[in-house]
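Supplementary material to the annual report.
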Amino acid sequence: MRSSYDSSVATVGAVLWRQVAPICLAYALVGISFGAITVSAGIPGWVAPAMSAAVFAGSAQFAAIGIVMGGGGLVAAILAGLVINARMLAYGIAVADATGRHRWHRFFGAHLITDVNTALVLGVSDPCRRRRLFWGAGGLIFVCWNMAVLAGVMLGDHLGDVHALGLDAVLPTILLALVADALHGARVRAAVGAGALASLVGLAVLPPGWPVLASLLGCVVLVWPCRRPGWQGQP
Amino acid sequence: MSWLWLIAAIALGTYLFRLIGPLAGARWQPGTALAELSEIAPVVLLVSVALVATLSGEESRGVSIDAARIAGVAVGAGLAWRGQTMVMIVVGAAATAALLRLCGA
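Predicted assembly:
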């Protein structure tokens, strides 16, 4: 699977403009709806912007607010948010080098780790390109997300039904499109397939957040030895 | 006050999850097997995030089949497979789900 232009040779600026800008637009619409939903639910106006800047993870923010508003309680909301974001641990290990070489770059860069810039950096081997993609995409998404949530808080009840726009179909699609190039090699595909199966089973029986973590069980297939010596399953 | 606790607890925990890799990566070089795992685990998680987001709804647990959402994701994934640009993929997925909802699906 290849994009119509080869993103592995395009300049970092071109990737940010042609791939990340449309993603930012979609995330901005979701951010506006997040801000608007919290205000409509009677939550103080500072909560959504503060949460978006400090947590900076959309699905955990929606889940935590949803649980509190549904009467699930503070502790349940905190636990759900943490379980949903636990995947960031695996992302952080994978993109550690892309956050930078200096200690302070790593401290700041860590906060910018998202699904999107992790997926963008995954297939890239050049260290400089990895850093620029990680910081460029992470920074753009951070600015767009927080400005959008602020706008949503100000719009509040005046916003129409965002659900009608089909954004809930866009977010999963974006991740699938970004990760497509990484799905090469039998070992990756076996792990992804087994992980998807574990998530499906988890979805039926586990609380929010856990089905995604259950997918890591799929990595068990990696204990099977490579069929040919020296063959790592990666092109 | 409880909002502050909610934000502080999730923000602190999330930041620590994010920080462990970048801090450890500065001094720790994994062996071959662990290096492979650290490359593949994010791919497995990302596909799972997409799958779970496609198949779950407002309810706290259980599978939720929303025909418009599933069709939108399928069309978007198809466009990605055909090598379309991100704009086309995003618009295709949103338009499919929105049109089906307009038609009452």
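The two ends of chain B are 42 Å apart (CA to CA).
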